[in-house]
Design a protein that fits this description.
The protein is an alpha+beta fold. The protein has helices at about 15-25, 70-80, and strands at about 30-40, 50-55, 60-65. It is built from two helices and three strands, in the order αβββα. A three-stranded antiparallel beta sheet has the order 1-2-3. Strand 1 (about 30-40) and strand 2 form a beta hairpin. Helix 1 packs parallel to helix 2 (about 70-80). The chain starts with 13 loop residues before the first helix and ends with a helix.
Length: about 80
C-alpha cells in the first residue's frame, strides 16, 4: 500500500486530482460516470452533499459524502462507492 502522506496526483481540477490520488492508493481502475453536488444547508458555510457513480468492469457502484468542504465531501463519496 502507498504511503498516504507521499501520494499526490494532478487533475483537471481538485476533485479529479483527489480521485486520481485515491486510485493510486487502492490500485483499482474505474470510471466516474456521474457526479452530483447539492447544498444541504443554507449560507456561506453550507453543508455540501456529493453523490457519485463509478463503473468498475461491468459493475456500477454509488457513493455519497457530505462536508462543508466540497473536496472533502467528494473524497468521502468516492471512498464510500462500493
Amino acid at each position: 500500500m502507498a504511503n498516504l502522506s507521499l501520494t499526490s496526483a494532478h487533475g483537471t481540477g481538485p476533485v479529479d486530482a483527489i480521485y486520481k490520488a485515491v486510485n493510486r492508493i487502492v490500485n483499482v481502475d474505474n470510471e466516474l460516470i456521474e457526479f452530483g453536488i447539492q447544498a444541504v444547508t443554507e449560507g456561506i458555510d453550507a453543508l455540501a452533499e456529493v453523490t457519485i457513480r463509478i463503473r468498475c468492469g461491468n459493475d456500477i457502484y454509488s457513493g455519497r459524502g457530505a462536508n462543508s468542504d466540497i473536496c472533502v465531501a467528494s473524497a468521502k463519496a468516492y471512498m464510500h462507492a462500493a
